[in-house]
Amino acid sequence: SDDATRSRLDGERAVFSVMEGDLAGAQTASKAVLANSASGMSARASAHISLALSLALTGDCDQFDKWIGDGLEACRQAAFEVPFGEGQLQLIEVTSCLAAGRFGEALRLTTDATSGSEEDGPLRSIWRSAASLVLGTMGHLGDACAGFVEARSATKEVDPYRLEGQIRGSLAIFAGQMGDPSQALDLEDVDRGGPAPWVSIWLSRGKAWGATASGERDAGAEIALKAAVDAIEAQHTFWASLALHDAVRFGRPHLATEMLAEIARDSPGAQFVGTMTKHAQAASSENAELLSTVAREFADFGSPILAAEANPRNAVDDILWAVLNAREFLFNH
Fold first, then answer.
1. Burial of 93 by CB count in 10 Å (0-12 exposed, 13-18 middle, 19+ buried)?
2. What does the pLDDT look like over 181-226, one tens digit per residue?
3. Helices 237-249 and 257-265: crossing angle, nearest 10°?
4. What is the mean pLDDT of residues 78-106?
5. What is the pLDDT of residue 332?
6. Residues in CB range of 305: below 8 A, 6 or more apart
7. If you write DSSP's letter for every residue of 4-28 in order, what string do you get?
């Protein structure tokens, strides 16, 4: 029928739009599939994956939370036609949880997956990478680096999603945060295949942290800023916000404040983005009271390292607060 043909074409357009970085177009096409009564369950499952990815990457956490339940159910019902669809949606959910400041929830998702059946499946390297990203964001830098080393080893066996560049760049980010620039030295030879933002944002952030670990903060900030601009052009605004916050952490908040504020305005429910924006504003204006608020918010999210960086004077209290929250989370799960 015409409706069935329209559903198929909209589904193809959603996937193509995601690949091309047209996330607004992906949302429109995906929602058209979901609104079409002629769409089968496999078409709905695929549309939910495209929609979820576009919402997570643009930091629209409110919309993501609205759709994720229906998406997971559609993927369960279409498990035969869309293999690993539920796992893909849960992986995307990790990104949205980070953007929303729900680090504990992101940790639960990755912990469940890496200790269950997904660990030995085709999504293994992606789950290991996602788990390491969460750990690093929460300040467990050594564990994050070890996880990325494991994930990189897994991609040597099979890398259907072309993750090597993202993994090596991420390893350089967290190694750089520990003062080790060595992982950033060999990133030039990474195959950047696929749409640039999927890989280049991580490579560039890795180089930025490598430069900073070598004492070149201005160079690091400029690299991070360029990475953010490229990601914004591709509509990967949540990833862009992380690069902009790198510049803040390098002591160059004035470079990032305006762009972070613009991203935050267009990211409903993305509390982490909002707090990164306040961090840039507070650091630029040297507002001690706001820095204290920012530090407590980072601690509430579960990241003592960000709390300590935002407000070194109260770092001990903020770290203790984050540790207590983490212990409560682990006890309850």
1. buried
2. 999 988 877 755 544 567 889 999 999 999 999 999 999 999 999 9
3. 150
4. 95
5. 42
6. 138, 139, 141, 177
7. HHHHHHHHHHHHHHHHHT-HHHHHH
Q: Determine what percent of the chain is predicted with pLDDT higher than 70.
A: 89
Token pair recorded at residue 107: 């940790």
Q: What is the pLDDT of residue 250?
A: 97
| Alpha carbon distance 77, 198 (integer Å) | 29
Cβ pair 224, 260 in contact under 8 A: no
